[in-house]
Amino acid sequence: MLSDVIKDRIRAAYAAIIEAKSLTARWGQRQMIAEIANTLSRIPGPGEGAASAPAVCVIEAGTGTGKTIAYAVAAIPLAQALNKRLVVATATIALQEQFVNKDLPDIRKHSGLDFTFALAKGRRRYVCLSKLDRMTAQGDDGAGVLPFYPDEVGAPNAAEAQPVYDGMLDALGRGQWDGDRDNWPATIADDVWFGVTTDHSQCSGRRCPNVSQCSFYRARDELQSADIIVTNHDLTLSDLALGGGAILSAPEDSIYVFDEGHHLPDKALSHFASFCRLHSTVQWLQDSKKLLAQSAPALASLQPLQRPLQTMPADMDAAADALQVAEQTVAALFENADIDDSRDDQQLRFEHGLVPAGLQSVAITLVGHFQTLAGGLARMEAVLEEALEDDFSGLDKSLLETWHINIGGMVGRAESTLALWQEYSVSGEGELPPKARWITLLNSGGQFGFDLRCSPVLAADILQDCLWSRAAGVIVTSATITALNSFERFILHSGAPREAAYKVVASPFDYSRAVFSVPAMACEPGDAVAHTAELIEQLPQIVDQREASLVLFSSRRQMLEVYQGVSAVFAEGILMQGDYSKQEILRRHREAVDAGRGSVIFGLASFAEGVDLPGDYCRHVVIAKIPFAVPDSPLEAALAEWVEAQGRNPFMEISVPDAALRLVQASGRLLRTEADSGRVTLMDRRIVTRRYGRAILDSLPPFTRELS
């Protein structure tokens, strides 16, 4: 139960913020505070028994509610009273930096609450001093560092990278840089940055001779005493995937807030998916074999390494040979498959996640090879760790650390490759729900390769095991969680407990100030050619070129064709996604509006969410069609296939709720402040002619409707 002391602290904090900032208390904000406080009061204190219901609440809070203030003033006092750490996870680094640099200092200043906070980022956001030293050292001893996935991020150009590395070392020495990539004054190319950063597998941890100056560990040490840890979904899920408590506090000692929480299920899936790119993995094995040969003389005095250094090259050759057999097996599968020739990268998805017998047999062999590799490399890593800790080994610590970094990286890649082949070494029969398994034939400048992937189709079991059943408390909030006025879609994908608290908090915006219109059209999007032609005809009449508009497409092809069809009419007034970065498009758009000119953005899904264009920056949102998912997504197809196999309707259960959610997000680009007004135009008459369309229409905010 909530004590009177805690209630008074929450009320006083909220009242103080409202008064200090001259705000108007919002009913939705107060509802949200009450819901969070009541939910977290279920967390048992020391010596108390288990909670009667999970301390989990899922809150859809409409745009303008003021979610940040609401969950902060409710959760901070309760977390402190329960001696729990508050972990606030945002969807992006930009949002987490706003929370740390603006929102939390503001709340602490005005609320009367006394708390500390720290920002948590993953290792890859920080420079690795050991790697930086090697990149800037004169007279390299030949013990190079094997790069991160060289098939994904190429080696940097030395002439371009070296001045950057020298500048980094100088800035660190002068105390002018903290080693955080986001705080470096200039943009750092990925290939340059990946040369001097590390991950969990390559990091020597507390054994590293540079640990006292390590940017990552300095930042991590600050987390130990902070009341609030601010991070993002990816790092939170990475920590949970490692068992919890590896980077952040243990789940049992944590109250999590997932802001923009509608991303949580998809983010979880990406963390528990596995993949292997065949040709580049063979290349990695060959590179690793050469590197081990280089290490043999340098590590000759470490007796426990002698046998693995002798046997490992042959093990790598055997694994590479087996991968080439796998490549032949996969190529044969593609020869016999019905492939869509219109795609650049062909995909072969296995129905119901079932692995063909021939591929399963190859996978079983590869599991054996990569178990041998992963186990042998892990034992080598352990020997190197012991040597790093032994001050009397007589070995060059810098050299030892280089090889520890290399072997650690090999362990990580061997284990991730093993995980993929384990997923293909089973038939897939009896999995509920089935996993999605698919192969992509990659074509890069005439160079062909195969990419094998496996992913769960739902994150429900994953999140149940690592989050819902373990965390002290969880708050999930976003402006868009429900679909078709129901939380069922979120529960299906996330596995959130049905006994959790679910609440919809209405936006304070006056939606009657905006119009949702569906104009008369002669065709529907099912006839793509005719629909595109009609968009080209109607857009110049619908869009006022003197205003700021956002036109959203579900298909890149349609966007390009419409742009070609109307560009002459709009002169240079269109900014199209792909021509510039997203940030540059938004900058140019605002610049044009500030100068009194009209501006029209043509964008895809990434412009339908997270884009903030208040007031005159956006008076009209045009949506080309109801945003149904791309039909060739392997995950979407596998999930729909499973639902259909159960005698249910995947279109109504999956496709329609997903599209409804995306349409709400797209429509939400219009009203960003309480003073905003304007128009949303949907160029898709299915919303009024189909039964499912009416259900989608009724799930939209209460705009004034103009339906032709």
Any overview of this molecule?
By secondary structure, the protein is an alpha/beta fold. The chain contains 23 helices and 18 strands. The strands form 3 sheets. Strands 3-4-2-5-10-1-11 form a 7-stranded parallel sheet, with helices on both faces. A 7-stranded parallel sheet has the order 14-15-13-16-17-12-18, sandwiched between helices. A 4-stranded antiparallel sheet has the order 6-9-8-7, sandwiched between helices. Strand 14, helix 19 and strand 15 (599-603) form a beta-alpha-beta unit. Helix 13 (357-389) packs antiparallel against helix 14 (397-424). It is globular. Residues 138-143 have low confidence and may be disordered.
Strand order of the largest sheet: 3-4-2-5-10-1-11
Number of distinct helices? 23
Low-confidence stretches: 138-143
Shape: globular
Gyration radius, rounded: 28 Å
Number of strands: 18
Give helix % range.
40-55%
Mean pLDDT: 91
Please write out the topology.
Elements (H helix, E strand, L loop, with lengths): L3 H17 L6 H14 L15 E6 L5 H15 L3 E6 L2 H19 L5 E3 L9 H8 L21 H16 L16 H5 L20 H9 L4 E5 H9 L12 E6 L4 H8 L2 E4 H21 L7 H30 L10 E4 L7 H33 L7 H28 L10 E10 L2 E10 L3 H9 L4 E6 L9 H7 L6 E5 L8 E5 L9 H15 L5 E5 L3 H15 L3 E3 L5 H13 L4 E5 L16 E4 L10 H12 L4 H18 L10 E5 L3 H4 L1 H8 L5 E4 L1
Parallel strand pairs: 1-10, 1-11, 2-4, 2-5, 3-4, 5-10, 12-17, 12-18, 13-15, 13-16, 14-15, 16-17
Antiparallel strand pairs: 6-9, 7-8, 8-9
Helix pairs in contact: 1-3, 2-3, 3-4, 5-6, 9-10, 11-12, 11-14, 12-13, 13-14, 15-16, 17-18, 20-21, 21-23
